[in-house]
Amino acid sequence: MYLSFLLIICYNLPLLLRACPIYLTISLESKTLQDANLEINWGPECHDHPEWIGIFNEDPSTAYVHPEARITDINNSSGKVLTNVNVGKLRFPFGWNINDINTVPIEYPKGKCLPYYVASFNGSELLTVECLKIQPNWMSKLEHIAQMPLKDIFIPGTHASGAYINNSAKTKSVLVKDYVVAQQFDVWSQLVFGIRYLDFSIGFDKIVDVYDTSIGDNFYIVNENKFVQPLRNVLKDVRRFVKLSHEVVILDFSCFPIGFYKHPERHSNLLHLLHEEIGDVVYIRNTSTTEGSKQCFELTIDEIRKNNKYIIILYPVQELPYPESESKMLCPNWKRFSTAFMNTSQVLDYMRLLFSKKDTSPVQNEGWVFQATRSMEQSLNNNKLEKAKERAAILNPKVSSWLKGPWSLTANVVALDYFSNTNIIDVAIYANMHKAFNMANKNFINFEIVSN
Ligand SMILES: *[C@@H]1O[C@H](CO)[C@@H](O)[C@H](O)[C@H]1NC(C)=O
Ligand SMILES: *[C@@H]1O[C@H](CO)[C@@H](O)[C@H](O)[C@H]1NC(C)=O
Ligand SMILES: *[C@@H]1O[C@H](CO)[C@@H](O)[C@H](O)[C@H]1NC(C)=O
Ligand SMILES: *[C@@H]1O[C@H](CO)[C@@H](O)[C@H](O)[C@H]1NC(C)=O
Ligand SMILES: *[C@@H]1O[C@H](CO)[C@@H](O)[C@H](O)[C@H]1NC(C)=O
Ligand SMILES: *[C@@H]1O[C@H](CO)[C@@H](O)[C@H](O)[C@H]1NC(C)=O
Asked: 341, 344, 345: which to mutate for ligand 6, most atoms within 8 A of CB?
C-alpha cells in the first residue's frame, strides 16, 4: 500500500513541479482563422509567477530565438491574454493536411508541435515550454488506454461538428457566418487536433435533383435550421482520417431537424449512405459473441480495432423501420446533457450534479455526452444577440478550466462549439493517462487519495 502510494506520487512529480502551467490557444475574436491571434493562458494554480512569458516560432529550449510577443506582470493564479501574434496560414506536418492525399504521414503518438511555442522565464532562465500541437495518434500514446471501456475515457468532442465553412466557400451571408457556423476547423482538422467525438444534425434536402445525383446527396449537415454542407464529404474525411491514424472516432447522429418527420424511409436511405461511405471501417456488433452483446460504451479501443474497425455510430435506432432498426452497425445514442439554455452559474451547478457521479446523479455507469454550448435563445435572454463565437468565447474557457480538476476523471464525452480557445484535448489526454495508470494499478491504490 505504502509503496504504491509513493509510486503514484513519483508518477505525478514532473507535472506537480511545473511551476506555472502555460499554454497557447487560438482566439475566436477574428472573422477568419487566418486572421486569428494567439492567446497566452496560464493556470490553474500558477502561484510561482514567472517574470515573463513569450511566444516563439521555434522551440526556445533548442534554439535562441527572439520572442514574437511577451507579457509581464502575471498577477493572477490563472488568466488569458490576447496577443498580436497572428496564426496566419496554419499548416500541419506533411500528410496531415486535408489536401495531402495519397501520402502516409508520420505518426505522432505524443503529439507534434506546430511552429507556435510559448515559454515562461525568470530573466533569461527558461522555466517551461509548451506549444500549439496536433494529436493525430493520441490513443496509442499509452497502451492501457486501449483496454479501458469507452465510458471510462475522457473523449474530447465537438458539437455541430460539420457546421463550418471552408475558405474557398465564399459565403456572403452574415447570418450563416455569425450564427450557423459553429466550428473554425473542418472535421478533418478537428480530428488531426485530437477531437474523437463528432456530433451531426442532419437534414434532408428535397431540392437536390434526384436524376442527377445519387439519393445519398440529399443529406446535409444542418445547424440552426440551415443547410450547411453535404454529409457525404464529411464522411469521406472521417474515413480517410481513421484509415491513416487508426484512432477510434464516435459519430453521434443526434438530431434530424429537417425532412425526417414521418419519413422513416429517409432514415433507411441515410443508413445506406453510411454503409456506402464508411461501412468498411464501422465496428459491426457480432451478437453471437459476448463482446458483440456488450453495450457500445462497454467496448474498449482494442476490441473495436480488432478487425481494423475504427468508427462507432450512435443513432436513434427506434426511428428506423425494421429490420434496419436492428442494424449491427448502429449503437443507440448515449444520454446527452446540454447547457444550451443555462447561464454561467447554472452551468457550474449542472456540472457539479453530473460530474460528481453521486447516487443522485443522472449519469451512472454508462456512456454520456456533456454538450457545453450556449444557444442563440439563451444569449437573447440577456437582451443581446451574441454571435456563436462570442458565446463560445465566454463559455469554453470556463468549462475547460472547471474540467481540469477532479471532474476530468469522471468526464466521458465533452463536446464544444469552437474548441480552439481551450486546451480541452490536452486536458483529456492528461486525464486519460491518469485513468489508464490507475486502471493498470488498481489493485494497489485508488487514485482519489492523491487527487483530493
Ligand atoms: C497585472 O496588474 C497590473 C496592475 O494592475 C496591470 O497593469 C497588468 O496588466 C496586469 N498583468 C496582466 C498580465 O494582466
Ligand atoms: C486578477 O484577479 C483579480 C481578483 O482575483 C481580478 O479582479 C482581476 O480582474 C484579475 N486580473 C486579470 C488580468 O485577470
Ligand atoms: C521567478 O522569480 C520570482 C521573483 O522574481 C520568484 O518569486 C519565483 O519563485 C521564481 N520562479 C521560479 C520558478 O524560479
Ligand atoms: C470547400 O468548399 C467548397 C464549396 O462548398 C467545396 O467544393 C470544397 O470541396 C471544399 N473544400 C474542402 C477542402 O473542404
Ligand atoms: C460472429 O462470431 C461467431 C463466433 O465467433 C463467428 O462464428 C461468426 O462468423 C461471426 N459472425 C460474423 C458476421 O462475423
Ligand atoms: C441564472 O439563472 C438563474 C435562474 O433563472 C437566476 O436565479 C440567476 O440569478 C442567474 N444568474 C446570473 C448570474 O444571471
From this structure: 345
Strand order in the sheet with 37-42: 22-26, 37-42, 79-86
Other residues' Cβ atoms within 10 Å of the Cβ of residue 105:
18
**For domain 138-439, is the CATH number 3.20.20.190?**
yes
Of 56, 60, 21, 22, which Cα lies nearest the Cα of 40? Answer: 22
**pTM (two decimals):** 0.91
Question: What SS3 string covers 367-427?
Answer: CEEEEECCCHHHHHHCCCCCCHHHHHHHHHHHHHHHCCCHHHHCCCEEEECCHHHCCHHHH
CA 430, CA 156: separation in Å to the nearest integer?
12
d(CA 48, CA 29): 30
CB of 345 closer than 6 A to ligand 6?
yes
Per-residue pLDDT tens over the stretch 46-102: 888 999 999 999 999 998 899 999 999 898 899 999 999 999 999 999 999 999 988
Instruction: Please state the length of the chain.
Output: 452
Rounded distance between C-alpha atoms, residue 225 and residue 202, angstroms: 10
Going from N- to C-terminal start, the domains of the chain cover 15-134, 138-439
> CB-side exposure of 132: number of CA atoms within 13 Å?
26
Q: Choose the residue to mutate in 75, 80, 81, 401 for probing ligand 2, maximizing ligand atoms within 8 Å of C-beta.
A: 75
Q: From CA 155, how far away is CA 195, in angstroms rounded?
A: 8
Furthest-apart CA atoms within the chain: distance in Å = 72
pLDDT in tens, 89-118: 999 999 999 999 888 999 999 999 999 999
**Which residues does 78 contact at the CB level (< 8 Å), separation at least 6?**
41, 42, 43, 44, 45, 46, 401
Q: Which residues line ligand 2 (CB under 6 A)?
A: 75-76, 79
- Distance between CA atoms of residues 247 and 238, nearest Å: 11
The answer for residues whose C-beta is within 8 angstroms of residue 371's C-beta and 6 or more apart is 159, 199, 336, 337, 338, 339, 340, 415
122 lines ligand 3 (CB under 6 A): yes
